[in-house]
Amino acid sequence: MLTKKRRTLDFRTILYLNILLMFFLIISGSEAVLLCSFVLSAVALADTGAWRQAARYSVGFAALAAVQYALGMALEAGVQNTVVFLVQMVLFLALRVYPFVGLGFALKEGKNIAEITTALDRLHLHSGVVLSIVVMIRYLPAMAADFRVILDAMRLRGIPISLKFVAFHPMKAIEYLIVPMLFRSEKITEEFSGAALVKGYTSGARRTSYFDVRMTAKDTAMLVISTASLVLCTFV
Asked: pLDDT tens digits, residue range 18-46?
C-alpha cells in the first residue's frame, strides 16, 4: 500500500532561511534576532514531524542560553576569571550557530537527495554548482560513518585514540587516520562519478523527479513571516 509522504518546507525555503539567518545574525546578532532565529529553525524542524528531536533541540538551546546568561552576569558582577570568560565566549558563539544546526536537522529529517537536486535545478543554477552542493550534503554523513569505522579498526588493533596520541605521534596519527580517509575518498569519488553518469547529469535535457517538489502556501508564509520578523527584531 502506498503511503503519502508528509509535505514539509521546500529545500529552497530552508536554503533561504540559512542565508537570511546568517545575514541578520552578522549585521545585528542581538538577543531578539537570536531568539527569532531559534524559533524559525525550531518551526522548520517541527514541520518535519520530528517532535521529540524538536523538543530536545529546544531544551538544548534553553540550557546553553541559561548557562551563557549566568556566566555573563558573573562577569558583570566583577568575577575576573579567564576560564569563565572563555567559556562564556564559546557559548556566545555556539548559540549563534545553533539555529543552523536546527535547519540541518530539518533538512536531514524532511528531504532526500533527489528532492534537493530537483529543487536546486529549478533555481536554474549551473550543473557544477548543483553537483557540488549535492555531493557535499551526501558525502558528509558518509565521511562521518567512515571515520567511525577507522576508529573502531584502531581500537581492535590496540592503537590508542586520544588527543595525547595525536600530539605526541602526529605522523602515526596521519598514517592511521588521514591515509585511510584519503583512500576511501578516492573510492567514493569513483562511485559518485559513476552515479552521475548513470543518472544523466551531463545531459542537457530537463530533469524529472519522482517527488512532487514545489513551493506551497506554507513556504510562502514562512518566507514572508521570517523576513518580516527578523527585520522588525533588527530595526524596531
From this structure: 999 999 999 987 899 999 999 999 999 99
Amino acid at 16: Y
pTM of whole model > 0.85? no
pLDDT tens per residue across span 96-154: 999 999 998 998 888 887 788 888 888 887 777 777 787 777 777 777 788 888 888 88
Give tens-digit pLDDT for 99-111.
999 998 998 888 8
Which residue shows C-alpha cell 584502531? 154
The number of beta carbons lying within 10 Å of the beta carbon of residue 13 is 23
